[in-house]
Amino acid sequence: MSDLEAPLRPKRKKVWVDYFVQFRWILVIFVVLPISFTLYFLTYLGDVKSEMKSYKQRQKEHDENVKKVVKRLKERNPSKDGLVCTARKPWIAVGMRNVDYKRARHFEVDLSAFRNILEIDKERMIARVEPLVNMGQISRASVPMNLSLAVVAELDDLTVGGLINGYGIEGSSHIYGLFSDTVVAYEIVLADGQVVRATKDNEYSDLFYAIPWSQGTLGLLVSAEIKLIPIKEYMRLTYKPVVGNLKELAQAYIDSFAPRDGDQDNPEKVPDFVETMIYNSTEGVMMTGRYASKEEAKKKGNVINNVGWWFKPWFYQHAQTALKKGEFVEYIPTREYYHRHTRCLYWEGKLILPFADQWWFRFLLGWMMPPKVSLLKATQGEAIRNYYHEMHVIQDMLVPLYKVGDALEWVHQEMEVYPLWLCPHRLFKLPVKTMVYPEPGFEHQHYQGDTSYAQMYTDVGVYYSPGPVLRGEVFDGADAVRRMEDWLIENRGFQPQYAVSELSEKKFWRMFDGDLYEHCRKKYGAVGTFMSVYYKSKKGRKTEKEVQEAEQAHLETAYAEAT
């Protein structure tokens, strides 16, 4: 067996859950899709209603809602009430990690009203938004102005709060970094009810750098000021097929956006958007995009593809056609390009509704896609949830760009998941060491894609059922994730915590740096008020006793052992 061959596995006996999952499409079509469409429509009406209000009115409502949050926090009795968390139901979050910490006793603070765009400031090039504003809402408001957030995560439902407190990336992250790197100010309600504005150069600069990846465990985010960039009406997208082994595919991916001469800041050499999909161990399609004007897109001979229409082929399948017809170029309306993966949830839609990519389904029912992830989670019981944890992978591996080939080979051998999604992002060298940070001394290594101020990383998106599961073989999903986490720790990688994690506390703090985070936990009174980031991310139900004991043993935590 060669190094890249997956190990032989015995066949797995089917259980009743297999048959339920196989026919789950019935529930999805007749229950989940209609309710999802209704909720999407009601949310849209709410967004329209919000847009009809003046910025002044929205700000007035915001101030009133912040006062309610402050009042609610001050009502908490630390000796009787549980730890603070938001009032969102456990299944509403878009991430695959089930919000089990809310099943223990807790003190709820309702943030459901914080879903307005407070201001789009064209002079400062800043959008000030509340945490429940989602990507679809902000792009619908800004793109007609030829403005956009610097990083627009692909799925419509992803919220500003989730992308800041957790993890957010897009095809422009090789220029601007992760979503949180584009934020210029946070408005935070601290544990004692104090409302502060944190920026990188004011008295709360430590809090500003500690907020990303903290999962809302330092305070309650009530608004953020986010960088805007000028854009054009279309994206000129080039699809380039590549055939070779995984290391050769990895190098082609790197070459698609990182000049070998190191001129990484040259807009003539570096595209505006980058994305690659690896369809199997020998084939991939590299996509690079540049903003284009309406006049350019409509020139004779140019192809315009409105990928957002409900009857259109799913984007990943459309891109795959480059493997047969060769390299081609087309123009996609910018907002439709931003949300190109929404209808099919990348390729997860194929597992949820196996025939939903067929032309007849797209034409008849495609307008109801996608099913809301929150509703999919709400309609699965404990047995189904555990089945997906074992038989299905939704993980992102953030690795240094020069190790992407190693990561692809590891995934092929251990999981055999295809397609794989590749998206590069910068990790900036900051004045302080945050939870995720570049490798020490990276600026002296001069790896392709790196600059003196940022190391280039890449997201390897692993989303689908592993090959052994599709073949009916035995597969231990929890063990595979544990081995993935060990590989990431050994290779200076990171695992976004929206996903199901098997990390022990000691390994968690080997992967992430906790110095600044722990400093802010103590300084701003989060200890004893908000759950720690590890216990919030930890798989399984948390009892209040477990969390309280962890907080009391704060100075002797596994973090201290790990360091």
TrEMBL record:
Swiss-Prot/TrEMBL keywords: Membrane, Oxidoreductase, Transmembrane, Transmembrane helix
Major location category of this protein: membrane
Membrane topology of this protein: Single-pass membrane protein
PROSITE patterns linked: FAD_PCMH
EC identifiers of the protein: 1.3.1.72
Location relative to the cell: Membrane
Keyword hit for Zinc-finger: no
Enzyme kind, highest EC tier: oxidoreductase
Gene3D superfamilies associated with the record: 3.30.465.10
Annotated Gene Ontology cellular component terms: cytoplasm; membrane
FAD-binding PCMH-type domain segment(s): 52-231
MF annotations from Gene Ontology: Delta24-sterol reductase activity; FAD binding
Transmembrane segments: 23-46
InterPro entries noted in UniProt: Diminuto-like (IPR040165), FAD-bd_PCMH (IPR016166), FAD-bd_PCMH-like_sf (IPR036318), FAD-bd_PCMH_sub2 (IPR016169), Oxid_FAD_bind_N (IPR006094)
An annotated GO BP: steroid metabolic process
PANTHER family: 24-DEHYDROCHOLESTEROL REDUCTASE, DELTA(24)-STEROL REDUCTASE
Protein name as catalogued: Delta(24)-sterol reductase
